[in-house]
Write a structure and sequence with these properties.
With 153 residues, the protein is mostly helical. Helix content is 65%, strand content 0%. Helix 1 packs antiparallel against helix 2, helix 4 crosses helix 5 and helix 5 packs antiparallel against helix 6. The radius of gyration is 23 Å and the shape is globular.
């Protein structure tokens, strides 16, 4: 028969288990809120996306910060604001989010929301590339653009 655990040791183990359980539930809740925000965003329901992303971003969630930056940049559910977008991108970029690092590099390159600074742009692009992030290509039209027919003379 195993020896009985001392009372303080048992309490410490119980507290550790409780803490781990709470952290796991918080992570599941975070993932559920991110997914709900992503779904709302894809559907164009920007107020619902904001409702999910803002609290997460304010708690330091890098993906939510990135998503809010995109919404600020595009004026989706909020007035277009490059300064606010750069702020959100920086929050996420400083946590190592590669897409945010790239987008912040773009802001510095173009001088949108931050002073134009090629050196800072290159620094952020480099950090992003170091993680293997490559900007998604712009999708070209799949159908050729019709040329107006010229009537014969």
């Amino acid at each position: 028969m195993p020896p009985e655990k001392s009372e303080p040791l048992a309490k410490a183990e119980d507290q550790a288990l409780l803490k781990a359980t709470i952290e796991e539930k918080a992570q599941v809740s975070r993932q559920a809120k991110l997914e709900a925000g992503r779904d709302a965003y894809r559907k164009g329901d920007y107020p619902a996306a904001l409702k999910e992303f803002v609290p997460l971003a304010n708690k330091g969630d890098a993906e939510a910060q990135l998503r809010l930056g995109i919404m600020d940049e595009k004026g989706q559910g909020v007035p277009r604001n490059d300064k606010r977008a750069a702020y959100r991108y920086r929050q996420a970029a400083e946590q190592g989010n590669a897409e945010a690092q790239y987008r912040l590099g773009e802001k510095y390159e173009l001088g949108q929301g931050v002073p134009r600074d090629k050196k800072k742009a290159e620094e952020w692009y480099s950090k992003s590339a170091g993680q293997g992030y490559v900007k998604p290509p712009v999708v070209a039209a799949t159908e050729p653009v019709p040329v107006a027919a010229v009537p014969p003379e």
